[in-house]
Specification:
Blueprint (H helix, E strand, L loop, with lengths): L1 H27 L9 H12 L7 E2 L9 H11 L11 H12 L10 H10 L6 H18 L1 H11 L1 E3 L2 E2 L1 H9 L8 H9 L13 H13 L3
Parallel strand pairs: 1-3
Antiparallel strand pairs: 2-3
Amino acid sequence: MRGAARVCKRILLFALGLYLLLALSLVSLRWINPITTAVQVQMRIEALFARKTYHKRYDFVPLKRISPDLQHAVIASEDSRFYQHHGFDWVEIQKAVDEEDEDRPMRGASTITQQLVKNLFLTTRRSFVRKGVEASLVPVAEFALGKQRILELYLNVVEWGPGVFGAQAAAESHYGVAASALGREQAARLAGILPNPVRRKPARMNQKAEIILGRMRQMGW
């Protein structure tokens, strides 16, 4: 029994130490731009095992060099209450629960903050452990980083196509322009591929782009 207790204690201490390390790393991102992310590493490893050619494009740029239209389009598409909630959108979570009770497919309710934490430290693989770690780090991100830095980090690390990470690489890859030069419709089309950037293409996002543009107008953008 004592041996089992010691093992459990060590596991708990390891888990606590790992969590503190992740939390401190998250706080440091207030001033330091990430060199890479867990999802970027995951995609490279998966390509290696699949024996696929993989070229990563990742160029971190400040928020002021990202088109306001893209900022607004992503918020309108991914997290319309981004500036109102504190990391969790309980309205969307309740909607997701209600729809599941009605035997409809579970809808996504992750906020930009949750998605940022996942991209930085976790993977795209779904699990209760991942969700638990993600949920525990979200309040740290909201408190330590603030909304503008969270948005800046998210727009720079999120995947916009196979090996394409960040708004700058996305703008150059899909439209041949800098992130600051993206127009309103281009921004809406890019925002439209975010739920599934590996399979979706901006050129095919006609209907989704119209929906996003409509949401932007409703939000005063």
